[in-house]
UniProtKB/TrEMBL annotation:
<dbReference type="InterPro" id="IPR024370">
    <property type="entry name" value="PBP_domain"/>
</dbReference>
<protein>
    <submittedName>
        <fullName>Phosphate transport system substrate-binding protein</fullName>
    </submittedName>
</protein>
<feature type="domain" description="PBP">
    <location>
        <begin position="33"/>
        <end position="272"/>
    </location>
</feature>
<dbReference type="InterPro" id="IPR050811">
    <property type="entry name" value="Phosphate_ABC_transporter"/>
</dbReference>
<keyword id="KW-0732">Signal</keyword>
<dbReference type="Pfam" id="PF12849">
    <property type="entry name" value="PBP_like_2"/>
</dbReference>
Length: 304
């Protein structure tokens, strides 16, 4: 019996060693600053993450492929191991955490910035302000001054955010429309009066060249929160001070389970360089980049 037990133990040990070596071999071409990886990104956050990837790739021997999806699609692929890294406007809920717990994976969740949801209207519309309560009432199909709302995608993070505020699970049947991207929402609102568009603020601050002409035909609205008496514009300063009512935190969710590019990219985005990119894009960094003051001939010069 002892001999059989020793043989079984030896076989089990051998299997574990071979398995570990295979895992190491699979990751041997990837480190925290080199190799190839695919990162899923909430489509509303794409512009700022594209900027980060561009600088990261120019600094390190790494190739990052971004897949822009709706929030629901990103979560589904992440849970199904289609991808192991994602950029989201929220953390994981208890049910999602349990999925990874069952796989014996502890996700590394890193806060990287604070963004905002912007409400936009056509330039021909007179009002440049809107009450959040009117948005909520419209989503609940109650009397409201709003004629129509347009979202990027019914499964997007912006749609989920507004639905949660209104206490509903899905879009109402009347007056709410959706496309596929934030670009399409901006274009539609620029060409149609009386419609409120719901987009990620970084699409306004950091637009694609082809989107720029449409931005000139829209207004970004100031919003009055449910517990406020004033209307607040989604400026970087107002978001940082926590007075804009539609602000949201951004996260990198890394489920690789080893020291790979997911860890390296997260560290880069929260580094001095990565946070400066966020600052210049009009978002609020989690760490304020330092400023150097050079004194020349008795005068102070700020160097960013």
């Amino acid at each position: 019996m002892k001999a059989k037990f020793k043989v079984a133990a030896f076989v089990l040990l051998a299997i574990l060693v071979i398995t570990c070596k295979k895992k190491e071999a699979g990751h041997s071409k990837e480190s925290i600053n080199s190799g190839k990886v695919t990162i899923l990104v909430d489509e509303t956050l794409t512009p700022i993450i594209e900027d980060q990837v561009q600088i990261f790739e120019s600094t390190y021997d790494a190739k990052i492929t971004l897949e822009s999806k709706s929030e629901a699609e990103v979560i589904q692929k992440l849970a199904n191991d289609t991808s192991q890294i994602a950029v989201l406007s929220r953390g994981l809920n208890p049910n999602e955490e349990q999925i990874f717990k069952n796989k014996k994976i502890i996700p590394r969740i890193t806060k990287i910035a604070t963004d905002a949801i912007a409400l936009i209207s056509n330039k021909n519309d007179k009002d440049t302000i809107i009450a959040l309560q009117d948005i909520i009432a419209f989503m609940q199909q109650k009397p409201s001054s709003i004629k129509g709302l347009v979202f990027d995608n019914p499964n997007s993070s912006t749609a989920r955010y507004i639905n949660e505020l209104a206490g509903i699970k899905s879009f109402p049947e009347k007056g709410v429309f959706s496309f596929k991207t934030n670009d399409e929402v901006i274009k539609y609102v620029s060409e149609n009066s009386g419609i409120i568009g719901v987009v990620g603020m970084n699409w306004i601050n950091d637009p694609k060249p082809e989107t720029q002409p449409y931005l000139e035909k829209i207004n970004v609205l100031s919003v009055k929160g449910n517990s406020s008496n004033s209307y607040t514009f989604p400026s970087q300063n107002n978001i940082a001070e926590g007075i804009y009512p539609l602000a949201r935190d951004l996260y990198i969710v890394n489920c690789q389970g080893y020291a790979g590019l997911g860890m390296g990219f997260s560290s880069f985005v929260t580094s001095e360089t990565g946070q400066r990119i966020i600052l210049k894009a009009g978002l609020v960094p989690v760490k304020t980049p330092s400023r150097q003051i050079l004194i020349r001939n008795g005068k102070e010069t700020n160097k960013k």
